[in-house]
Amino acid sequence: MKITANTYYNQASQKLKEANEEYNRPEEDIVSYGVCENSRFAVENYLKGYLVEHNIDPKSFDTVNSLYAQCKLLNSRFEEIDLTEFGCDSNTFDTDHCNEKEIEKVNNCYEAADKLDTFLRQEKII
């Protein structure tokens, strides 16, 4: 089965929605792992979708940082999105970072995903 850009975008949007629902709970009820993992998945899939849309196989990239770097090569406006605080930007696709309990780290993950979603919508990509 060939995965299309829209498949990646739809999966990313769904995970961002799930992260948003968790993120907007009262702070004492937030499950940080859920917010972070869903946000990471959204960022990863938004970037993969963009690459697929430009006929680039995302499987050849093993980090969020490498996906992001390739997207910036295709469209320099991606530099408007700051993923430096994302936390997963240089790690392989694992969930170790998402085990952090600090609300600031959870906030960074969520904000990165939300900003990327907003950027793609403003660019009329999704």
Brief descriptors of the model:
mainly alpha; 126 residues; Four Helix Bundle (Hemerythrin (Met), subunit A); globular
Secondary-structure-derived class: mainly alpha
Figure out the total of helices: 4
Task: State the end-to-end distance.
Answer: 22 Å
Reported by name, the CATH topology is Four Helix Bundle (Hemerythrin (Met), subunit A)
User: Tell me, what's the shape?
Assistant: globular
Structure description:
This protein has one domain (5-122): Four Helix Bundle (Hemerythrin (Met), subunit A) (Up-down Bundle). It contains 4 helices and no strands. With 126 residues, the protein is an all-alpha fold. Residues 89-94 have low confidence and may be disordered. Helix 1 (5-23) runs antiparallel to helix 2. 40% of the residues are buried. The protein is globular, with a radius of gyration of 14 Å. Helix content is 57%, strand content 0%. The two termini are 22 Å apart.
Task: Kindly summarize this structure in a few lines.
This protein has about 130 residues and is mostly helical. It is about 55% helix and about 0% strand.
Question: Secondary structure elements and their pairing?
Answer:
Elements: H1 5-23, H2 32-53, H3 64-74, H4 103-122
Helix pairs in contact: 1-2, 1-4, 2-3, 2-4
